[in-house]
Amino acid sequence: MSIPNPGPVFTMKKFALSFALLALPALADETPETLLIRQALDSDKFGHRRGEVDLALAAFAPRVVVYAGNRSADPRAWTVLHEDRESLEAAVAQDLRANRYDIERLVPFIHVRGKQAMVTTVDSGQVVDRQSGAGRPLRTERLWTFAKFEDKWLATGVVLDLGAEPLPAAQGSAPAQIAQVLQEEEAAWEKGSASAIAGLFDENFMGGDGAGQLRPDKWVLLFSGAEELEKWLEKRLQRTRYTIDRQLIHAYMSPAGGEALALTRDQVRATYEGGPATHELERAVLWTLSRQSGSWKITGMFYRLGLPE
Amino acid sequence: MKKCVLLSMAVLSLCACSTTEQQVEELIGTLAANEIDSPAWKQAVDGLVGLGRPAARQLVAHIDPDYYKGENYCEFREEIEKIRTGCALALGRIQHRAASATLKDRIGTAYTRAERLACIWSTGELGMDQAALDALKVQLKDEDPSIRLYCAVALVKMDDTTGAAQITAALSGGDAELARQALAQLEGTNYFGVPLLVALSQQPLPYQAQIREVLEKVKGQLIGQLEAEDPTLRMHSARALSKVGDPSVYRALAELLKDPSNLVRFNAAASLAEMDQAEGIDFLFAALQDTDPILRVNAVKFLTEVQRASGAVQSQLIAALRHQEPLARSGAAQVLGLALVREAVPALLEAAQDQEAEARCNALIALGRIRPSEARARIEQLLGDSDETVAYYAEWALKQLGQG
Questions:
Q1: Which residues of chain A lie closer than 8 angstroms to B78, CB-CB?
Q2: Please, what CATH class does the domain formed by A11-162 belong to?
Q3: Cβ contacts of A224 on chain B, cutoff 8 Å
Q4: Which of A183, A309, A191, A175 has the alpha carbon at shortest distance from A252?
Q5: Options 1.10.260.40, 3.40.50.12370, 1.10.3730.10, 3.10.450.50; which CATH number does A176-303 get?
Q6: What are the backbone dihedrals phi and psi of residue A25, each rounded to the nearest 5 degrees, phi first?
Q7: ipTM of the complex as predicted
Q8: What is the reported pTM?
């Protein structure tokens, strides 16, 4: 199965897309970008409904990570299901051979910033076993992250099966490597080195604010990529000095060792060159990390996560 | 004087920077690093005001919550509060009218008290804007009396007295701090606040002496503004001074009767006339018989205002119905009708027989407005007037009487 080429699209396709966009019902706050994201989500949905793997996979970027939410919105319960597209493709193919999906999809939340987006979906309907014909009801919530590749939006990450259950923290191995990256990030802040901080982040990293919520429906994107982060850091660190006291409260690494997730509780204190004010806050931060490019890089950072005590 | 020196120092200390944008960023950095209302914070606000309109675009951006993302991210709400409050105050002082749309969106409960008060104050400083006015009225129901007070004062600055009761309440209640705020805010209302200040100064309020003190300060400001470069400022200041009713302002107002601006001259004359000063009354009556129709229209407008406000020109207007100049007779009839002077009815009935058709028309229109039942017979006689316009207005006036 070929990986979809996110490059230039055939003109007829563009025409068809424009027509499809016109045909979609007008929704409040809808933009061309959200319509394109909905189209990608539809591709996954229709792929599942029709049992077409290629169509379902057309929604995903070449580099994608899929987490199992384990019926919890608390990232401490999340585990990595697929850390690359090949693994995802194999699983989808196997699933669609075994099951038929008769589902509808709601999209309660889409937040776009630049070339990145966060989306939540709620799928409902039933999954029918192709062999026995037995159906079981399905209701599942998902968190998606998207990135724009030229004129296409593709999913770069999915957390399947979110929920409200207080599940035990996922067990992973060797969190020391993750702790080290986060300690380096903390030290770079205290050194006031923008380049040292930015160097720890993946080029396409996504930064956001959890707005004190655990569920992602109120999250806001703050940074799109390491370049934007570095611009902020350069500007910010000119006049502001930071002290960070970081406590690692959870770390998890995927069985294959390519992806990781961590939660820290940070005490942040800022002082300023321009005057005596000091500002302080405490925040829980969700980190996702990846070793796909060789060394560990931070791929996601969500400040102010509303983590239950 | 001290303020001017501080402001100059703040601006001069930034001269090493190459661009206004960098200077604004420096000053905003100072806002972030100092407590609101601390000397350094206030100096930074002064510095931003000193930079003036070239700084406005950046200041407007810093008010918007969406600004604090990406390369402008700020994780501390208190820091944003310091910046937003300072930028809002600076925008009000710079008088950047385009900022009104942004400021009025920040006066609701999603923002901190300091931010709200600053945005409300600045919205008022920027003057009349319908959307801002509507937004301020909504906040008159806020639970915080200071927010209600600031909104009421901002509305006064937009020439709207919807919130006057809030101001009176602030000066009547037992909250000394709120009363202090009310007095301080009223001091900044310029000519818009004069009628309210005069009314408050005549009420038996616990802070009457302080209200009179504020009124005295505003009067001084208005007298100073009579020499302002901006004719609108001269005009409004001149007009508001009549409400103060202080003989010490006669001379300054009389000087303005020679002002190059028509509207300034008329407003000064109206104020003098309202205070029963012959110079003003003579000016307006002279304009009433001028061959320039624009001057006549202004004379009618201002004489009507004066008559309605004080009745100071009633006898002169009635006498003018017998003036040798037909233009003066016509104009006087117009004013008497617009001001609804019931006492002028006998003279208007006489004027309805004027030899000049235009004077007869205006007398009929005035009678139609006043609607005296005793005028019916005389008006009916004019239904067959040789002048068609007079006959038309006779019919119109009769219809008005029918409604009365």
A1: 277, 279
A2: alpha beta
A3: 70
A4: A175
A5: 3.10.450.50
A6: -65, 140
A7: 0.85
A8: 0.83
